[in-house]
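Self-study notes.
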Amino acid sequence: MAEFAIPVPPIPLVPVENQAASFPVHRIYCVGRNFADHAREMGMEVDRGTPVFFCKPADAILPGGGEQPYPSATTDLHHEVELVVAIGRDASGVIAREDAGHYIYGHALGLDLTRRDLQAAAKAKGLPWDVAKGFDRSAPISAIVPKTARVPDADALLWLSVNGQRRQAAPLSDMVFDVADILHELSLRFELRAGDLVFMGTPAGVAALHPGDRWEAGIEGFATLAGSIAAAAQPL
């Protein structure tokens, strides 16, 4: 039996809808600039031939949303609502677009929370912006729905509201790269494994979350998720 120098950290787990079993998370891949309107609001143009990828650590997940503290080192926390794809099989090599569906275990709804001020500062210096994306509890996520149970409609509305006011809304069909495109492109760059999650990008309307704010999100006809930012114990 193997011995460990420190206690073994728990495996990050996401509940599976209507099952006792949980989905163990291997890696979290995220797609940037996958809605043209969001790319434009960030001052970027979309290159249809080149998806933008970045990663979050597996333990950034926050299953079920719920209340969370305002993160450290920022005064500009932003919400980004996204479709999430859960991978259920190891890929032995490049995934052909026509075979992408065979690797999907299910889908979920998630948020890519972003420390926008840290991201902007890194971009201005031409530096990586991992610290803006990969922080604790930066990936709230709903239960994963197995594809055998149901899948989101191709044109289902992806939306997010804060304190009852709608901020983001766009059909999934507005994605520049669809799921098959993204799984193919990811497999050219990484060895995709069962347990991987892919956050598929966000529409326009990203904006700040403040202490005391409550957010709600959904994929119409498929899933919902809600959470809140804990009231600050002292001024930020």
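Second protein, same conventions, sequence then structure:
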Amino acid sequence: MNCRHCHAPVDLQLIDLGTSPPSNSYVTTETLSAPERWYPLRVLTCTNCWLVQTEDFADRSEFFSADYAYFSSVSESWLDHSRRYVEAMAERFDLGEKSLIVEVASNDGYLLQYAKARGIPTLGVEPTHSTAVAAREKGIEVLEEFFGTALAEQLAAEGRSADLTAANNVLAHVPDINDFVSGFATLLKPAGVATFEFPHLLSLIDGAQFDTIYHEHYSYLSLTTVRRIFAANGLTVFDVEQIPTHGGSLRVYAQRSDSGVRAIEASVGALLAVEREKGVETPDYYTQLQSQAETIAADLLVFLTEARSAGKTIAAYGAAAKGNTLLNFAGVRPFLLPYVVDRNPAKAGKYMPGSRIPIVGEDCLRRDRPDYVLILPWNLRDELDRQLAYVREWGGRIVTAVPSLSVA
């Protein structure tokens, strides 16, 4: 395998999670009796540019299909994060009715709705039909395409260059990261700004967040590597913020290398120094995650098995992609975990890929009053603790498995 960015041979393994189906390919009642496609899930590190990346076994159209079931607006905390982002960007970069914000991977309009409410012209780019339809219902224009240099050139030629581009939790999702990044350099106005949010590699490794690894995440990113990829494709990083979303993420600000005028903030050098001290450019940094993942999976199995033997009842909450990685790596099946509750109507009545655990509505929790509720999207623990406060009324306890088993 050669690196997606620098094309050097890649052979340093970060983790091998065996095989699993794509984590967002939820099983329907109609397909329950049909076989699923399982692919190896192995992540390697390029020791030339230090890009951490999955091996490729399937086309991205299989991961981002027309019935894609991830809708950003389901999470109240994510909506609040997006509203505050729009407010901050509008103020910092003086965006108004003569500006244009283009969001790549605009999903169901969760972010652009706040720009539209401020009177700022917007355009979404979103390849999944199900979420694009939801965004259009909010009055947001959406191009139903994958983003890259060709689309950026088309938009620029049409006079739709951007003052601000937003790309939240998508930089890791693209197979051709060079073409994707180059597209932003093409689409931006000379003084335009591109922002990217993505889970930080340091959070993944230091927090044993192996369940954030799944097939549609092609890359796992440090600022060290992102800065290098951007520079090779016409963008210069001028600021970076560490934010708490998704268990610890970065918001990177970039400008065109040929025309950008903003000074590079001290935050860039400071975080690069932290990463260097952690060892992101040394092979040893990438050797611990495998054993940590195996311990987490084993501890979860022991807990579920012992609870079942003791006659305790268990349910899970949040049919998240990260939950599918965890359940499939640990080998959890419905006899240990009978169902997963989720508020997303696009997932209700379906089954978790691989494990085939049914996804049900929240009324099942109130009806069954389980002894334990396992939260799969642990990054939303605070939000879900508030939503599930009623579980404690009957003595139920909240469980998380990552970064270590916790019962509270």
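Instructor comment on the second fold: The chain is about 30% helix and 20% strand.
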